[in-house]
TrEMBL record:
Organism: Oreochromis niloticus (Nile tilapia)
Highest taxon listed in the record's lineage: Eukaryota
GO cellular component assignments: nucleoplasm
Identification of the protein by name: Coiled-coil domain containing 106a
Chain segments carrying region Disordered: 1-79
Biased amino acid composition, Basic and acidic residues: 11-23
Pfam families: CCDC106
Ranges of biased composition (kind: Basic residues): 50-76
Low complexity: compositionally biased ranges: 24-49
Phylogenetic placement of the source organism: Eukaryota, Metazoa, Chordata, Craniata, Vertebrata
First and last residue of the signal peptide: none
InterPro entries: CCDC106
Length: 184
């Protein structure tokens, strides 16, 4: 039986002859299978396990597909001030059930900034409907809803009576507790 090399080729000296303490055992053994098993057991215990390669996998983030009804609902934009009022009123109904504004916005598929920028329309329509109707009747047909929302905000800020009424309604929970900066 030829001696079986137990050392890794990189660990074996090149100029020295192979000298292994187990090679003598292997040659003394007449049974080749027992020699092989003893040498192989030494091989497995003496060799270092090969280093595992680290793979960098790119994770693909896939969004779960939503039913078509929800997709259509999320893409829907408001076209008129009345759409804004309708959306505001539906948020008013949802907010007490959800306990937080964030959850209510998520349920309706809305961004907080979108609601904040148009909330003055809903607040004016709920709190002071006659002022809202007057602004609505003076609205030009090509005017953007955001421009109309700014007019409503100016009407709220221009009258202390309207401003105080809206603040008191927010405090009682009749209106959404949205806090805005000075400019919308």
């Amino acid at each position: 039986i030829q001696p079986f090399c137990c050392l890794h080729p990189a660990e074996q000296p090149k100029d020295k002859p192979f000298n292994d303490r187990f090679s003598s055992k292997a040659s003394e053994n007449s049974d080749s299978s027992s020699a092989f098993s003893s040498v192989s057991s030494v091989w497995s215990s003496s060799s270092s396990s090969p280093k595992k390669r680290k793979h960098k996998y790119k994770k693909k983030h896939s969004r779960a597909k939503k039913p078509k009804k929800e997709q259509k609902k999320l893409r829907q934009r408001v076209q008129t001030p009345n759409d804004i009022v309708q959306r505001y009123k539906s948020l008013l109904k949802t907010f007490p059930k959800m306990k937080t504004m964030t959850k209510a916005f998520q349920k309706h598929g809305l961004d907080r900034n979108t609601v904040v920028s148009t909330s003055s329309v809903g607040e004016l329509a709920v709190a002071v409907p006659n002022v809202y109707q007057e602004l609505l009747s003076n609205r030009s047909s090509g005017e953007m809803v955001l421009a109309f929302a700014k007019q409503c905000e100016a009407a709220i800020q221009g009258s202390d009576e309207v401003k105080n009424k809206i603040e008191s309604m927010k405090a009682t929970g009749t209106l959404l507790p949205i806090r805005r900066g000075k400019s919308v």
